[in-house]
């Protein structure tokens, strides 16, 4: 598989990464045998970057990855670990932590659960509201110097935070939601800043949490995601599924599914907008095979133009999260284009799902 360099540190990765959240932290967790087989299938195919977090399943995901790598060479895998998401015993997300003491404590537990002596990319999951990013990155930098961490990443942060962090220690990549349905990184300065500084982008949510699979239809009993993902709300869903249907003729022309077309679009962005790696949220081996086929699809400039016409930037109805959750994202600060959307503004919405299935 053709590889690309993630950041200026020389880390070579495939155009796809494997997001492991859904294997442990989902409304319907994956069968563990399927999950481990999926990790093995990805590694065998050359997809080496595995994305996890210490709060996915409250440590279960890291333990699962440890067991998957038990019979494999640890050096075949590149482990990307997020930290800082605090959860209660009921699973609800209760805060964000970025203090240096927490950084080092969290890493110690991750190293133990993963049974490894180093993490390849270590990153705060969100910008902590009460800790300067310089302090958080400074603590990780000390761990790099000590040999426990190889590279430093960021997640869901804006251009100013990226620059401040990069001034403390070189940043390998920024993890951000980026897809045909979530194109703000193109206009809010995130992609431009990363390209300027030589920072890679690991794009999650490439299938818009299921909308871009081409097979989604709202369940008869309703979808719980409507409470925290406004794009699934009935007031927005019809518009968004119409946009998906506009992609079908182009997908058919290439002999692929809509999901593969959406994945190929993100991979293509890695050729024209700097290093972009698509994070695949697979839980079964055949999903890896489908994504690998998508990564090999060559989209021409004409193809990309037709996709822009089918799904114009800003045409999607609804913000990517409910208002209470959008407020947690440093990447969403600043002026945004006006959008038609229905927002329940439910202040009681649980953040558990946001950190559970968006990777």
Low-confidence parts, pLDDT < 50 over ≥5 residues?
335-359
Instruction: Report the radius of gyration as a whole number of Å.
Output: 19 Å
- Average pLDDT metric: 89
CATH fold category name? TIM Barrel
CATH architecture classification: Alpha-Beta Barrel
Note the beta-strand portion: 15-25%
Largest sheet properties:
8 strands, parallel, barrel
* CATH class placement: Alpha Beta
Could you spell the SSE succession in H and E letters? EEEHEHEEEHEHEHEHHEHHEHHHH
Q: Let me know the number of strands.
A: 12
Counting structural domains, the number is 1
CATH homologous superfamily assignment = NADP-dependent oxidoreductase domain
User: Largest sheet, order of strands side by side?
Assistant: 3-4-5-8-9-10-11-12
The share of residues in helices is 25-40%
Structural class: alpha/beta
Q: Report the end-to-end length measured between terminal Cα atoms.
A: 22 Å
- Gross morphology: globular
